Amino acid sequence: MEKRYYSISEVAGMFKVNQSHLRFLEGKFPQLSPKRNAKGTRFYTKDDIQLIKQIFFLVNEQGLKLEGARKKLGEKKDQVAKQQEIAERLRRVKKELQGIARFLMEE
Hints:
The chain has 107 residues and is mainly alpha-helical. Helix content is 69%, strand content 7%. The longest helix is centred in the last third of the chain and has 30 residues, at 77-106.
């Protein structure tokens, strides 16, 4: 059974970043607004996590600055999601091909 909500520490661990980095992104991307309880504890949904993936894709892989990433997500979120999914698939295929190549080299 999948979790409905993830803590900030769990999400930070998924992306190998500090919790403060996630809080920083919340301030820069109005689309990113995890739910909070009365104490202010953040709870991230799958949609929040997907948005964070897209932000990292745009910044780290596409080379956009935060302002550019924010604009792109505001204008073409569906297009960004498709590009990110394609990039993830290509990484998986590349990894699989590298494994096959290693196996063939051993023989």
